[in-house]
Amino acid sequence: MADMYVRFFDTTLRDGEQSPGATMTSAEKLEVARSLARLGVDVIEAGFPAASPDDLEAVRRIATEVGNPTDGSRAPIICGLARTITNDIEKAWEGVKSAARPRIHTFLATSEIHMQYKLKMTREQVLDKVREMVCLARSLCEDVEFSPEDAGRSDPDFLYLVLAEAIKCGATTLNIPDTVGYTTPEEFGALISGIIKNTPGIENCIVSVHCHNDLGLATANTLAGIQAGARQVEVTINGIGERAGNTALEEVVMALYTRHATFNCSTGIDTTQITRVSKLVANYTGMSVQANKAIVGANAFAHEAGIHQDGMLKHQLTYEIMRPELVGANQTRLVMGKHSGRHALKQRMLELGYRMGEEDLARLFERFKALADKKKGITDADLEALVSDELYQPKEYFKLDGLQVACGTMGMPTATVRLFGPDNQARVCASVGTGPVDAAFKAVDAIIQAPNGLLEFVIHAVTEGIDAIGEVTVRIESNAAGQVIGAQSEMDQLRTFGGYGADTDIIVASVKAYLSALNKLLAATGQYETAGQTEAEV
Amino acid sequence: MADMYVRFFDTTLRDGEQSPGATMTSAEKLEVARSLARLGVDVIEAGFPAASPDDLEAVRRIATEVGNPTDGSRAPIICGLARTITNDIEKAWEGVKSAARPRIHTFLATSEIHMQYKLKMTREQVLDKVREMVCLARSLCEDVEFSPEDAGRSDPDFLYLVLAEAIKCGATTLNIPDTVGYTTPEEFGALISGIIKNTPGIENCIVSVHCHNDLGLATANTLAGIQAGARQVEVTINGIGERAGNTALEEVVMALYTRHATFNCSTGIDTTQITRVSKLVANYTGMSVQANKAIVGANAFAHEAGIHQDGMLKHQLTYEIMRPELVGANQTRLVMGKHSGRHALKQRMLELGYRMGEEDLARLFERFKALADKKKGITDADLEALVSDELYQPKEYFKLDGLQVACGTMGMPTATVRLFGPDNQARVCASVGTGPVDAAFKAVDAIIQAPNGLLEFVIHAVTEGIDAIGEVTVRIESNAAGQVIGAQSEMDQLRTFGGYGADTDIIVASVKAYLSALNKLLAATGQYETAGQTEAEV
Known about the structure:
The structure is a homodimer.
Chain A: E1 4-5, E2 7-10, H1 12-16, H2 26-39, E3 43-47, H3 53-65, E4 77-83, H4 86-96, E5 102-109, H5 112-119, H6 123-140, E6 144-149, H7 156-168, E7 173-178, H8 185-198, E8 206-211, H9 218-227, E9 232-235, H10 249-258, H11 260-263, E10 265-266, H12 274-285, H13 312-319, H14 342-351, H15 358-374, H16 380-391, E11 399-408, E12 414-420, E13 426-432, H17 436-448, E14 453-460, E15 470-485, E16 492-503, H18 506-525, H19 527-537
Parallel strand pairs in A: 1-10, 2-3, 2-9, 3-4, 4-5, 5-6, 6-7, 7-8, 8-9
Antiparallel strand pairs in A: 11-12, 12-13, 14-15, 15-16
């Protein structure tokens, strides 16, 4: 039996980025998109362009820079999400049109509960809206995907009708979401079979599945969808996404691979890239991966590299169903040191997948040399932490110039912070706190004056040993930064901002991460855009 | 149709504790067992008594203290694991016999690959061993569970034969493990159906399922097992366990609850305890839960408590398939302050589920007052962090007496540590490092001299705001501490030790966590048992 090709539609940058606090900067999004392209995904859903001008701009950059590969590789489809609203669809097209292979993805809910409570529309009105908006999308773009939201709880007969109309109006991919993560694999498989059997015209379209993990069944439901005939799966890296998240790309890929005889499916995914992309997304979003996460967790494989036990091979056969190398885990980690030159660094970064300009490389090299003075062997993980810290930071309204901390069991943790502000003036403030980070954050707050609530604060020493770089992610929430539209919930939500910092000193890393989140918040409020000018005028 | 009762067999303390670094102290295991009893699990697998005298002792304490409730509640079955080895079975019985309802669980692999490479036994030899050892177990204990390891990859006909023999010899529960997490729900359901249909005598036994999550399918496989007739499920809190872990208790419980009409099953679980137990296990094992984990992740529910938006209710209906309160998330967090007395603290701890002796309460109250001086409102999370830090620490060979740290961007992080040693002498050491934690750990190492490798270092500020208590977990590995037998792999593994520390100062918390892990390591090596004496003699 010939293999069936299953398309991977990655929505890490859209549905994944909607997780509270997973907000990424434009530069981070671009790097994630590049990594997804290298990973071999077929479609990158780059964002929801109508959400804000920033979102539109990020999608446009990805469409231009990742959607037009210059190295002869096949261009990934770049997709933008749109509600069934004229402005949304036009914005989506504006975002993706510069890609070699653009796609518009539009959606409307079809379950009774959503139509009645959220849309306040009748079935007839929903049908009309789908016809009108799919036609509009198709008039702009040849590749149009339509999703009947909350399909898992929709009346199947109405669903067939809506899908048939979307097909008539030119939709080329029909995506079936289990929006609330409610179905069982048996039910979801039956839903997909029913759609394929009963929807006129569906034989010329790709059927796609989009599952959520509220009951821990996203992967099983996605696989059931494939067995029922779906040929596209919508997934995210590490399964990030709202609530319990989306289907994890890595789980579906490796299930199809490991159980090839059962599924008879091939994919375009280069599995050896999985671990790298997983770490990249965890760092940029601040959504860390638990040790016992399938495929990409720290403990996912039974045996660590370097164990050299007799009978290792036989034990691998008895307890491992896939080799760590297959997903790029436990790769040899080339260690660099203080005598490594700029050329060696450039080479290593290329091997790690970073194409860097000379200016970025120069900044990285400077940080690299400073680190090499403190720490003997510099690993790939250290390098990736440096890249995140150095190159993917938001616009810096305030920049850390100096930090001095005293703490311990004497009980008066004190921090002194010196920041350069938007007016390029240094400001110094000392503060006491319950701990060194609290003291330092209080000192920062006294200077910056941007009220916010700290939602999460996580420090990881991901690299080998405690002398390595510590990475800190923080998530803050602001009333003042206004609200953002959730694509599906259409609820205004308080905006949250994630920040990332890396340093061998975790207190320094903490302050950097906090400043990075605050700088994102300041960009959203515009507080210091005007404040800076006012001060200049005074 | 009448509900079918599904028994929950929790193996957090056995299969869960086998995760690298998830080692818990005896006191922590006891507290987890108490929480599992409150949660309403039917069976607590308390450990693998043959692994070490410590493991045996921990099982015995749980059997005695949790296996004989004095408040009139139904006693949970307390179970001990044993290989099909006389000594293992005798040790297991020694561990569990003091419980009101003891169980011995023994297992032997039945797949060709395991029999050939690991056991080096023929089918006939496997059958003989099963007969002999199940008979032995049954001669000691009325309640005997047998598992054919790697059943998912075993020849079904041979499996039926082995199970039939186990039943003849007196096994009362037959547990079917998908040891390597390889099967799909369809396959696993068919395996269970086949067993129920083809195994003579099985109608008088309970069929159980035990799944692993290597492909992200553990929950789906477990549910497929239930649909095929299994009436016991083996699970862990947060799905912890070797590699990608076991089936998560919370996912199976909530799937059965939320989709009651599909499954028609009832359970003995009090769902409102889920969040509490999840946090407890995460703290004690140091296995943190990712934000997008189903049911117990920080983001698992769409809406946070306190959002008071118009139409909240309608949105809950549209996007939530269960209410957060149902799993005990978002409960009102009573805030205590510096004027709260000892009685109020005792009351609150009781409400949180901690029955504390007067001595423990006195120590907790002291820490509580110290914290209240630093921090305005003390939340439940703060209290639980204090309990973990104060009451569930290993024997302290070395105790932190003083810590002084200076760090910041000046680049010479320095820590001075004063420890009380086993001889009750204070030792002071100063050290410089790449960061404050590195400096402090180096100073500790200079005093304690117990070579080890740091595997993981995680700091969480789980409570509200950065002024709250920071919690640190570390995992270290030691060559010197000898090796431990994995029940199933029978591979000797390097012993790893987890440590936990909590303080408003994260550097202090880090040192406490490191000391707690080191103290566990020292207990395992016995290094300072003798050293202390030697020094006393000198």
